[in-house]
Amino acid sequence: MDNMASLKDTLTASGGAESAGFLNDIIAQLWPNINVAGGKIIKDVVEPMLDQMLPGPLANLRFVKLDFGPTPIRFSNVDVHKTELEGIKLDMDLDWDGKCDFELDASMVPKIGIEHVKMKGRLSILLCPLTNVIPLIGAAQVAFINPPELSLDFTDAANIADFSLIDKTVRKVILNIISSMAVLPNRFLVKLDSSNDYFKTFQPHHGVLRLTVDNATEITGEKKSGAKRLLQKLVKDIPDCYCDVNVGAEGEWRTSTIKNKHDPQWNETHDFLVTDYEQRITIDVNDEDLGGDDDIGIATTTVKQLLLNGGSQTLTLSHKGQPLETKVTIHGKFFNFVGESNSISASSQNEGEICGLATVLIASVNGLNGQRDELKPSVKVTWGDKEFVTPVKSYSPGTDIFNPSFDTAFRFPITAEQLSNPHSFKLSLQNGTSEQGSVDIPFDSVTGADGMNREEEFDVGSGATIRARFSIRGLQLAE
């Protein structure tokens, strides 16, 4: 996409909304099987994450019963179209109002039951690459475009004194787990062809949204408690406002705090990576307070809506579902990622802005040696002070632990400071916590490669190799 017209064409492209009656019929027939398979995924994948993410005595909660109940998930409003990389993209609304029977138990807390789950969200399913061999599709990748809405009804101990704490804690952890597994840019990968090449499956980010929070008007603050209201009268409190800003499930950004203003002017900018144009932009305006910050209100739009509106919107805030007089104005510019070496530059960069993106794909490790039950391989990727590690693999019947697949992507936003003296990338082969070998990949060996892509089997010693791809992309304004 070289100009704003082509960006507009992309934003408005749609196959047209369709019903999902046939799909819902299939899901209904498969629901008993989904019940069993879903329970296994929760035990194998989600339960270990609970141990790491739940606090204190809740950390050793374990599922002792998993029954999704008789009501299947339903889909609607399906939109089908092709992707730029010759795949098929299906977007659809997911709605589950499940009368389920989940039980969690732990040694230090009473049993916790969940009897009702409500979940809503917009799901994106990528089918790619397309092939000429049955099943014609290499893999399916499933993700929510934005974090889904989730509500839980508890039974047993959770219905008494600690309900609000347990509800907030468990729901937050579940949403964090969903986000880490299947909210963009994270996708849950299902190989349909065992020989599928991850490098052809991976879908890169669309580009960067350079978002500016300009100003807000008519901020009066939320209704305060008695003590705060009295203090407000005594000191004539005027809001000290800041904004927490989110785009999809990308990391949250906070503006500075503007003191003593009903109409604060921030004019501050931050860059967000964009994976889907339907990703939600959320502006949460707060009043900084020594006794605890007060929530003024929230405004939302999407990347698509902002760009189709010419890159500027004035949004109305709402508080607890009620619209306010308060408005916030935002501006946005969109930059495409491009692979030309002259597209990445450190010039004219301001705080909060990036000048490029490095993406590292780890497909597999080949040629491991040792006792299969003692092998716990993973790959660590390091660039400067940032490092990421793939999931650890272990032997199970039917797996090739000597040549494990990882199919994992890592991204490193590039700033002007990093570009002025770029570090080499480092791939490290781990067995448990022990490093077994490593290799350095100079930054300029990637920028100097064709299309700024370097893909090969990297030798890390002892006969082992890591199949990886390094890609660097610069920015080009879409206008």
Automatic annotation (TrEMBL):
Which locations, inside or outside the cell, does it occupy? Membrane
GO-annotated cellular components? cytoplasm; endomembrane system; membrane
InterPro entries, alphabetized: C2_dom (IPR000008), C2_domain_sf (IPR035892), Extended_Synaptotagmin (IPR051634), SMP_LBD (IPR031468), Synaptotagmin_SMP (IPR039010)
Alphabetically, which GO biological process terms does the record hold?
A: lipid transport
Instruction: State the name under which the record lists this protein.
Output: Uncharacterized protein
Q: Mind telling me which PANTHER family this protein's record contains?
A: EXTENDED SYNAPTOTAGMIN-LIKE PROTEIN 2, ISOFORM C
Q: Which UniProt keywords apply?
A: Calcium, Lipid transport, Lipid-binding, Membrane, Metal-binding, Repeat, Transmembrane, Transmembrane helix, Transport
* Annotated source species: Fusarium fujikuroi (Bakanae and foot rot disease fungus)
